[in-house]
Write a structure and sequence with these properties.
The protein has 299 residues and is α+β, with helices and mostly antiparallel strands. It has helices at residues 18-27, 36-45, 51-58, 99-107, 113-129, 164-180, 190-201, 260-265; strands spanning 59-65, 68-75, 78-80, 84-85, 91-92, 135-138, 143-146, 153-158, 209-213, 223-230, 235-241, 245-251, 270-278, 283-290, 296-297.
């Protein structure tokens, strides 16, 4: 329900077909991994995660050096900037990897092999002794080397714009089904169901309103919270991940009859349910949200 890739443990094993589950896992469940804040939360809370895989699959690692933007890769937590072409057509390469591409370039000139090897050896030796900021040219090979220094300023950016509203709608839909069962599918709730499904699938038609609540600062906590409240004028679902990544989903109110099952079990004007999951230990809890009384723990 909350994807396992962000430490969720609430599962609808018996009620989701494999085809739908696979589609959701590929197209929807990865949306939160595209937010840099999710990576920050994993690090801040020391939670196990595949950082290299997340960066490789969902982010571009970029570095800025002397006004040039470089494309990087990450392996074992270490950022590396391999040889690459710059917009003007020149190449940039780490110094320790210089001789390989330089040799290929030199032998493409078609000059005699012995002459090429000799000139290449001279060029590399002169480059190694040259001060930072200087340029060394071989007229024989038609190659100019510029010796630079410094480490790129690294940043990571999503490969595409995240669409977390799709996952928030999926969590809402599945959480309501967990809590309300068949009551969710009353004809009176068809409008709400259509809006949720259109948001999940990014289909044409009416969608749920999903807003991100930005905290003043990201203070992450080992806690996921799902909380819905169904009042006369509005249905509101809060999804709070890592205690800080906060979304609000709004729909027209569900039919009063949808909460009949809850009201049969609990007194005190139940209008919703809250779920809490601790991430630092195996602890989950449900609370009944009551209209005019404090929330009551129910499991």
């Amino acid at each position: 329900m909350i994807p396992k890739n962000i430490a969720g443990t609430l599962v609808l094993d018996d009620f989701v077909c494999k085809e739908d589950n696979d589609w959701l896992g590929t197209n929807v469940d990865t949306e939160l991994l595209r937010l840099p804040e999710t990576l920050q939360a994993f690090a801040a809370l020391s939670l196990p995660h595949d950082r290299d895989g997340i960066l490789r699959n969902h982010f571009q690692v970029l570095g800025e050096l002397d006004g040039q933007i470089l494309r990087g890769k990450i392996t074992g937590g270490v950022v590396d900037f391999p040889m690459q072409k710059l917009p003007g057509g020149s190449l940039i390469t780490p110094e320790e990897g210089l001789e390989g591409p330089l040799t290929k370039m030199a032998f493409r000139t078609g000059r005699p092999r012995a002459e090429t090897k000799s000139e290449l050896k001279r060029l590399v030796a002169e480059y190694r002794k040259a001060p930072i900021g200087s340029t060394i040219t071989s007229k024989v090979l038609g190659i100019t080397l510029a010796r630079r220094s410094g480490q790129p300023n690294v940043r990571v950016v999503p490969k595409r714009q995240p669409r977390p509203e799709r996952l928030i709608a999926k969590i809402t839909n599945e959480f309501l089904f967990l809590v309300l069962g068949r009551h969710l599918f009353l004809p009176e709730n068809a409008e709400q169901g259509e809006a949720l499904h259109n948001t999940i699938a990014d289909s044409v038609g009416p969608k749920a309103v999903v807003l991100r609540v930005k905290p003043e600062e990201n203070v992450f906590k080992p806690l996921h919270i799902l909380h819905f409240r169904n009042d006369e004028d509005l249905f509101v679902m809060h999804v709070v991940l890592f205690g800080s990544i906060d979304f609000v989903l709004c729909l027209p109110p569900l039919a009063v009859a949808s909460l009949a099952l809850l009201r049969e079990q609990f007194v005190g004007g139940v209008v919703g349910i809250q779920f809490q999951q601790r991430l630092d230990r195996d602890l989950k809890a449900f609370w009944a949200v009551r209209k005019d009384a404090p929330a009551r723990r129910i499991g």
